[in-house]
Structure prediction request, 164 residues.
Amino acid sequence: MGLWACIGVISPFPFYYFLWTNPQTWVDLCGRGRDPCKLMAMVSHVIKLLQFISLFSVSTFSWPPPLYFWPLFIFGQFLNFRVYQLLGESGTYYGVRFGKNIPWVTEFPFGVIRDPQYVGSILSLLACLSWVPFLYIFLWVLGYVFMIHIESKEDPATRAKPLS
Prediction:
């Protein structure tokens, strides 16, 4: 179970890496008239479900959670929802890489927290340390740190050209 849980926890990151580094291939695969951001979101949700199932398979729950759980989890989820609220689906799911014009956002948490969605996700994961063995949280966080690094080196010349 442990190996499969590790694979499940890191499963989204090769997909995200592929899309970030090969946006034109993804746009071409999606085809004319299909929104690459919407399709990425759909695939990501399925992979995220696999990730959560993997995490739950190695978790042991007890109630109540430790006091640190609530502030970490609530603030982490606030950051995630706020990013989605400000960027929408296209901004959250690599729209700029797929050739979409995504307006620059400066409202909180942008401009205050670097990579706020990843920070929010990491905080939410750390909140669950009393339930989930450290290895699985570490692998998931490592995946986010990897993607932060990959996404920090974006070259606008490698963005996809939208299919007309």
